[in-house]
Write a structure and sequence with these properties.
The structure holds three protein chains of three kinds. Chain A is mainly alpha-helical. Chain A has 23 helices and two strands. The two termini of chain A are 43 Å apart. Classes of the chains: A mainly alpha, B alpha+beta, C alpha+beta. Chains in contact: A-B, A-C, B-C.
Chain lengths: 561, 351, 358
């Protein structure tokens, strides 16, 4: 005799579904609708014909090549360094581990900017240096190429593989390898027959993430490829929307390409979930025992130097370049003290309206989006984790959806939805970026707040009720204080990435609604390299400060609980 | 001959001495247990035997061959020692099926396919796994996984088997069954077993001889019944079973509990070899009799019915003694005065 | 006052009927244990009494008040109970004192009174000095004590405990058993204790109720009754290690493998049914002369006792004897050696119950 009342739980469920539908589902649906429905009738052939056009086909091909190349390269580098840091007696391992994660924190398009300055075929500083030194006619490196894009993306994406594999290596039950040793196997055999196969799921998980990000990425291919007519899907979509002035066919090409992106992303995530859930590879041990460590002997210091060099070249060099170029009075001058000034920075921060607005916009948009997304995320997570009503599966599905939707696609979907179609026109306002951010980052908020809520076992709430508290009092006194750290984590998980992002806002900005990322990009496009670099330098400083702040806050929370 | 000899073996980790000057001879074909609380050094000793740890001092020999010698910096690596080893968490490889798990050491040796087939099948037969040889470990229970580990260890026909707490991850019933299976395997195949455990019942049930270790130092070596009936120290006494200790003093032929003269005299004889008036009386809960009159006087603090027996806690001054009687015993209520007589006891130096 | 009456309660989860027509009366001030294997529904019943779930049928009364049934459902916060959960459920963000004081928030007492009550109960559980600590700074046993203190501070009539000791090590478990018993005596509360551990149930309870896998109450009685006079073979097996031998009857005299034995007067009589004699390991011994003939299959020295597996009349039975007795008596037998077995008391059960049932 179950009671079926229309209670608060049902109300919350409906509200949550409504929010997700409006924010996430409809924009995506509109993409598919626009791509495949012509004058009220589904028309797949027309859409596919668009794909056969040489430039769109070329973009598809390039996307695959770049994603494939980046994935393979990142996997090799990621596994190598993970193994080095987790399974050898490399000196200063702990420091190196932290250093290898730094590329994660740097926006890759700023890196692309730096590499363009250093290695562009005509004006790149390193190229010029080498040509002078060795009296060469042609430049040695050309970063404005498919290979260049792959190289730069790898620099910033390999930590995905690194984190997964080093974590798995460290947590792996060491007796699995010891059993192989006592069975007579030497290190090489053990690695080949035991360690690597057991690591496969982690390697694949990391590699798939790299593929996903590479496919969806705008900044690096835009800066290094567009000038040379190398297009990938997101940059092609951008070109179609802007260069064509919004004609129907162009938009349809855009949505068609977006659909492909979504399907590819969904496929990747599906494969990843299969890989991770294959229970065969439950090798994590509870006890913390020392894993088998390889003694590097003679290779110890050379490998350390190699690792440090790698960091120096991929992290330090671009960063230093950005800062130095940002101080130049005019681009092209030599790096001498008389040619450098701090005026660029003050100009950008305080005097130039364009950059001032961009910084301001990024801040308040990110703060607002982070706050709102965190709150909505908490509400939805509560329904998902703590209630037992039917129909939750719909909410779960909608919640997972944004994960597989790249920023470009969300931007496009948001344009289709909020440009007057349903009576509301947010185009060219800050609101459209705001809505896009919420859609983009909802998945992160859900993941973080769900995890926090799952930690609060039901028995904690029930204990409160047994003590005399009503359901609401129990929530206020017990649940809320305990999920606060998770909510704060969700906030920062959204605030920092939103602050530095480019992919989504580049499709949505208007004359007064540039973000930091957009400003850097457009300054570069307009040839204002020095100002682009200076703004990029400022962005790097802000991001670094933000990371430090987060570490402080989260550590303080951990110590106080 | 597979006699395992440890001479003056010492191992330090940082500032802590995990194993201190251990001298031991494990006889060919015997089932030898190393027993002690966690952190006592028993696992470290086993790992040194296996070759996973080097020695700070001392030497390990098997038969006439030197396996580890710290002075000469000589260590035969684990992969060359030809031991069989079973780990606590089974260490069965999830990505290989059962047949491949068991065949692995044979494949490493480079035996012919036919030979590998035969010997793997035999090992699987011996452990009752022939039917599931094509299944994967993930599909099997804890007990079956432990059999896989055993089969893999015996596949190469080792002379010595090392077992590191192999049964602690199994539920109690299974633990008992597996003990017997291991013993049976040993009887049939004739290898020497070195078995590490923290469970004294397990050590006693399975061993021909055993040692008790504490803080890296060997406390006692002997057969299980020797160690149970004649524990050499208070620590071994308390570790090997439930115990009662009373600080007593014997003067002019009469023994009293120290500080509790009102309890009366204790009808015991001070064991030989103890000097000084003060000593510690050690007694098992099942070796104390209760009476209404006479004996050492105490008060019944608790009486607990445990199904098969009744357990009394009797207070004598500040000390509480644990006494176990048959289930039908109901003579004394909580709060009642009672007299204690010690049927069997041992004595240890004070402190 | 603290009487709990459960009448005809039923509860289903989806297709599984966990409890059906369950009736039970727990007397005021008694310590009652619900004992059963995992999945038998004992925790479900506890949650029904607590008010976290509602029964599909039946009534539950606490004291004279109807709390569940007949359209009523009093929410947990209004039932004036103390609950201790298996995972302690101590709030990590509040101090020991704040945790313990929480129930008093809803009683409208003056802060000064509250402080005194909290300190008093903390002293009782031995945490008087640790009031300002956070749960993360306490051991498992100490956290369990906080949970107990919190459950008792508002002087509830009924205390519900859901396997509170299973996460503690053996030594601590013994200690905490005594503490719970003492606390109960001190507060005079009725306790409903839920567990799968027979040892705890026997040591702690005034009465035990045994639930089987299907949620049915098999026997309710004192620990001695349930252990020594089980109502059927299943209860007998559940309560501890048990062995069985086939009984034959020569007129009124019982026999095992041709040798006369004593059986308890209670229990079913020969006539049509084949009977088994059931006994506990300590209720039999190996003798040097006479006794029922058997063969020793295994000998295991377990410290204070020696454990024998003996084959008697075609069945393998388990016998334990005190070590010194064995050493001074027959000595340790060898495996395969013939021996004599003397049974102290055999309880009779229908043979079908063993071979027919699982």
């Amino acid at each position: 005799m179950g009671q079926r009342r229309f209670g608060t739980a049902e109300l919350l469920l409906l509200l949550s579904i409504l929010i997700l539908v409006v924010v996430v589902a409809i924009p995506i649906l509109l993409i598919f609708w626009n791509a495949f429905v012509v004058e009220g009738k589904p028309d797949f052939l027309r859409a596919l014909a668009l794909l056969k056009e040489p430039d769109t086909f070329e973009a598809l091909k390039n996307s695959l090549v770049i994603a494939g190349g980046t994935t393979v390269l990142s996997t090799i580098i990621g596994v190598f360094f993970a193994w080095l840091v987790s399974r050898t007696d490399l000196p200063y391992k702990a420091t190196m581990k932290v250093l290898f994660l730094v590329p994660f924190m740097l926006p890759s398009f700023i890196g692309a900017l730096a590499w363009k300055i250093l290695l562009s075929p005509r004006g790149g500083h390193i190229n010029r240096l080498l040509m002078d030194l060795f009296h060469l006619e042609d430049p040695v490196f050309n970063i404005m190429s498919l290979g260049g894009i792959i190289a730069v993306e790898t620099m910033y994406l390999f930590p995905f593989v690194f984190i997964q594999v080093s974590g798995a290596l460290e947590r792996m039950d060491p007796t699995l390898e010891e059993a192989a040793r006592i069975s007579g196997a030497g290190l090489f055999t053990i690695t080949r027959r035991i360690t690597l196969p057991l690591m496969m799921p982690s390697i694949l998980a990391g590699a798939l993430l790299v593929a996903l990000y590479s496919l969806a990425h705008f900044g690096v291919p835009a800066i290094l490829g567009t000038e040379r007519n190398i297009f990938i899907i997101p940059t092609k979509i951008y070109e179609k929307i802007y260069a064509s002035g919004g004609n129907f066919d162009a938009i349809r090409t855009g949505t068609m390409l977006s659909s492909i992106l979504v399907l590819a992303a969904a496929a990747i995530l599906y494969i990843q979930s299969l890989v991770l859930s294959s229970g065969r590879f439950q090798v994590i041990s509870g006890k913390s025992m020392r894993p088998m460590v390889l003694k590097l002997r003679g290779l110890k210091w050379p490998l350390l130097i190699l690792s440090v060099l790698y960091i120096a070249i991929t992290v330090v060099l671009p960063t230093v370049t950005i800062f130095l170029v940002g101080t130049l009075k005019t681009y092209g001058l030599a790096f001498k003290l008389e040619n450098m000034t701090f005026d660029n920075f003050t100009y950008i921060l305080f005097k130039w309206e364009l950059t001032r607005d961009a910084i301001w916009n990024s801040f308040y948009l990110s703060l607002a989006a982070a706050a709102v997304t965190m709150l909505i995320g908490t509400l939805i997570s509560y329904v998902l984790v703590k209630t037992k009503i039917r129909g939750k599966f719909l909410l779960e599905f909608l919640g997972v959806l944004p994960f597989s939707v790249p920023g470009t696609v969300i931007a496009l979907g948001v344009i289709l939805m909020w440009s007057g179609r349903f009576g509301i026109n947010l185009y060219n306002t800050a609101w459209i970026i705001f809505v896009a951010y919420i859609a983009r980052y909802m998945a992160f908020a859900l993941k973080s707040t769900s995890a926090a809520l799952e930690q609060v076992h039901d028995s904690l709430e029930e204990a409160a009720r047994a003590c005399g508290a009503t359901k609401w009092q129990a929530m206020k006194d017990v649940v809320l204080p305990l999920i606060k750290p998770g909510m704060v984590a969700a906030f920062f998980l959204i605030f920092l990435p939103a602050l530095r992002e480019l992919t989504t806002s580049v499709l949505l900005y208007g004359p007064h609604t540039r973000t930091i990322g957009v400003a850097i990009y457009t300054l570069n496009e307009d040839g204002e390299t020095v100002y682009a670099a200076a703004l990029a330098a400022i962005a790097l400083v802000i991001i670094m400060l933000g990371q430090v702040l987060i570490k402080r806050v989260t550590r303080a929370k951990i110590e106080s609980t | 001959m597979a006699t395992v000899t440890l001479s003056h073996v010492t191992k330090r980790f940082g500032g802590v001495t995990a194993v201190s000057d251990l001298n031991l001879e494990i006889r060919d074909g015997e089932c030898f247990s190393m027993l002690g609380p966690s952190g006592c050094g028993k696992t470290t000793t086993l790992r040194m035997l296996a070759g996973f740890e080097d020695l700070d001092e001392g030497e390990i020999r098997v038969g006439d061959r030197v396996f580890s010698n710290s002075a000469k910096r000589y260590y035969l690596p684990p992969e060359k020692r030809d031991f069989g080893m079973v780990f606590q968490a089974f260490a069965v490889w999830p990505h290989l099926d059962i047949f491949d798990n068991v065949a692995f050491p044979l494949q490493i040796k480079g035996l012919s396919r036919a030979e590998i087939q035969t010997r793997t099948r035999r090992a699987l037969e011996d452990t009752g796994l022939l039917k599931v040889q094509h299944a994967y470990p993930g599909e099997l229970s804890g007990g079956e996984k432990q059999r896989i580990a055993l089969a893999r260890a015996i596949a190469i026909n080792p002379q010595v088997m090392l077992l590191d707490e192999p049964l602690s991850n199994l539920d109690p019933k299974l633990r008992e069954e597996m003990r017997f299976e291991i013993k049976d395997l040993q009887r049939r195949l004739g290898f020497t077993i070195v078995f590490v455990t923290h469970d004294q019942a397990e050590a006693m049930a399975i061993s021909d001889r055993m040692l008790v270790m504490r803080d890296g130092v060997l406390q006692q070596v002997g057969s299980p019944i020797e160690i149970y009936e004649r524990p050499s120290s208070r620590f071994v006494f308390s570790f090997i079973g439930l115990s009662n200790f009373l600080p007593v003093a014997t003067r002019e032929g009469a023994t009293f509990v120290q500080g509790v003269p009102e309890a009366g005299a204790v009808a015991v004889i001070r064991p030989e070899g103890l000097s000084g008036a003060a000593w510690t009386l050690a007694c098992r809960p099942t070796h104390i009799d209760l009476s209404a009159e006479g004996g050492l006087r105490g008060i019944v603090a608790r009486r607990v019915y445990l199904g098969d027996l009744v357990e009394y806690r009797v207070r004598v001054g500040p000390h509480e003694l644990r006494i176990q009687k048959g289930a039908r015993h109901e003579a004394f209520e909580e709060g009642a005065p009672v007299g204690l007589t010690f049927r069997q006891y041992l004595g240890y130096p004070e402190g | 006052m603290g009487r709990v009456a459960i009448e005809g309660v039923a509860k289903a989860y989806g297709p599984k009927q966990v409890l059906q027509d369950l009736s039970l009366a727990i007397e005021d001030g008694e310590c009652f244990t619900l004992l059963g294997p995992s999945g038998c529904g004992k925790t479900v019943l506890l949650r029904l009494v607590a008010g976290f779930e509602t029964p599909d049928a039946g009534e539950i009364r606490i004291g004279e008040r109807l709390v569940s049934g007949r359209g009523t459902n009093v929410p947990p916060e209004a039932r004036n109970l103390g609950v201790v959960f298996q995972d302690y459920a101590v709030w990590p963000h509040l101090t020991v004192r704040a945790n313990t004081a929480y129930p008093l928030k809803f009683r409208g007492e003056a802060p000064a009174q509250r402080q005194a009550a909290v300190q008093a109960v903390l002293e009782q559980v031995g945490l008087g000095d640790l009031g300002e600590r956070l749960p993360s700074q306490l051991s498992g046993g100490q956290q369990q004590r906080v949970a107990l203190a919190r459950a008792l501070v508002a002087h509830p009539e009924v205390l519900l405990l859901d396997e509170p000791l299973s996460n503690l090590d053996a030594n601590l478990r013994e200690e905490m058993r005594f503490e719970i018993k003492d606390l109960q005596r001190h507060h005079g509360a009725t306790i409903l204790y839920v567990t799968h551990d027979q040892e705890v149930a026997l040591a702690l309870s005034d009465r035990i109720g045994i639930l089987d896998q299907g949620g049915r109450l098999r026997q309710v009685g004192t620990p001695r009754e349930v252990y020594d006079q089980p109502v059927d073979l299943e209860v007998f097996r559940f309560m501890g290690v048990s062995s069985f031998v086939d009984l034959a009857f020569d007129g009124d005299r019982a026999q095992v493998a041709g040798t006369p034995v004593d059986v308890r007067p209670e229990g079913p009589r020969p006539a049509e049914t084949a009977l088994l004699g059931g006994f506990r390991p300590l209720e039999a011994e190996l003798v040097s002369e006479g006794g029922v003939p058997g063969i020793v299959r295994r000998v295991a020295l377990l410290g204070a006792v020696v454990d024998f597996r003996v084959e008697v009349g075609g069945r393998e039975v388990r016998i334990q004897q005190e070590t010194s007795e064995v050493m001074r008596g027959i000595g340790l037998p060898a495996e395969g050696q013939p021996c004599g077995v003397r049974f102290h008391h055999l309880r009779t059960f229908p043979a079908a119950a063993l071979d027919g049932g699982a």
